[in-house]
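lol so apparently i was supposed to do this last week
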Amino acid sequence: MFKRNIQPKKIEEKPKVDGAGEVPVKKGKAPPELLRGFRDILSDEQARWTLVRDRVRALAEAYSFDRIELPILERADLFARTLGKQTDVVEKEMYAFEDPSGDLVAMRPEATASVARAFVNHGMFNLPQPVKLWYEGPMFRHDRPQAGRYRQFHQFGFESLGVPDAIVDAQLILIASRLFRDFGIDITIQINSIGTPESRAAYLTELTSFFRPHRNKLSEDDKRRLQKNPLRILDSKDPAIQEILKDAPQIIDWLDEDSKQHFTKVLEYLDEVEVPYQLNPHLVRGLDYYTRTVFEIWEAGDEGERAQNALGGGGRYDGLVELIGGRPTPACGFAVGIERVVKALADRNVSPEPRPHARIFFAQLGDASRRVGLRLFEEFRMVGIPVAEAFGKNALKAQLEVANKLGVDYTLLLGQKEVLDGTIIIRDMDSGAQEIVDATKIVSIMQRKLSVAEGVNRPKQDVVQ
Ligand code: HAM
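anyway here it is w/ histidyl-adenosine monophosphate bound
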């Protein structure tokens, strides 16, 4: 399975030059390249990332989920056993390799398996149930990079372990839908039930025989799926298959009585809290550990396209903890791709202020002044007033230009003379008026000035409705 990945790929040999065996890198000519599917998240994007992270944390706390941080590297077989050996994620997309001590490890492609492992490792079945955990962090899949799909991406996720009731599923779906409502992103919840492994077995036999007469219309990939993991054929993106699927047997008709009742209850709870959903008989999800409820969060408008880029997904996984050696523990959860949420926010021009805007600029003239400046910065930091500077520039004119660009309210000017006198000059950037004050009182003077100006000069914060 992952043997393929154990040996590092041979690096393509570059032409050797003058027998030395190394290609000389011309300075400044060949900047190092990012790996495909990996990206830097630069400062101009950070405000949206912070917004998402802050909202997720607040919601998790409101619903009493505890944070868990999980390692990025795990034993590779954790994922093979839980996500399924025949799944795309394990078969084609795992960053799996042998580490220097000879262990076969993988960079986590998702976090639910790790949550289940941690649940077992730390004896969490002894805690009051359900154990409600949330996490956030990078995941790795060697997927084909395209819009909205990366090889390193970030997820946040909510998992609730220990309680089998349908209300848990409904509450998780409610949390997901509240979050997107807060973000101002219209979504639909796509929902289905895939029953228990036992009830599914009979359905899979039926589905395979339904497809037998259509075999010649299937792509090689779909033929393979039908043989190894027939359920996956249901979310084939091939339009010809989608046409055939219209007449295919639906898993919902093959559910065992308990699964049917469970699903009905989930839907009733959702109706109760007025969370709209769409029943989607083709939704099966790409990981093997799911039982009963499965759902995805699609951006509204994507429904017709069988969203390749779901914002999030999840479901119940009642067999997972037991599968990795724990006590039987029903569980349910979901995860959301942060890149996709950030993109949806950008599409809606949501641009929160990157960080508190500096209200004061410190202009220094000479070394003694810089030293006083360092101390002053600390004093302003302690009272929560951000101060900007341009230590790279020495001329006053150049520094004032920066202050103007930053749109600060005041500039503090400190030259040789002021340092000797123990004073400091305050320049009002709107009027250009200047006053000389006692340097020891500067912080309290500025606090007063800024609170008077509060609401007059403050830049407006962008608000997400
Ligand atoms: P998943 O559907 O594989 O589920 O991933 C969840 C979300 O992660 C996707 O809906 C998508 O937003 C994001 N995502 C996945 N792959 C990529 C990628 N290559 N680039 C960008 N974003 C991506 C899981 O991972 C399950 N662990 C969810 C879960 C939690 N089920 C139960 N609990």
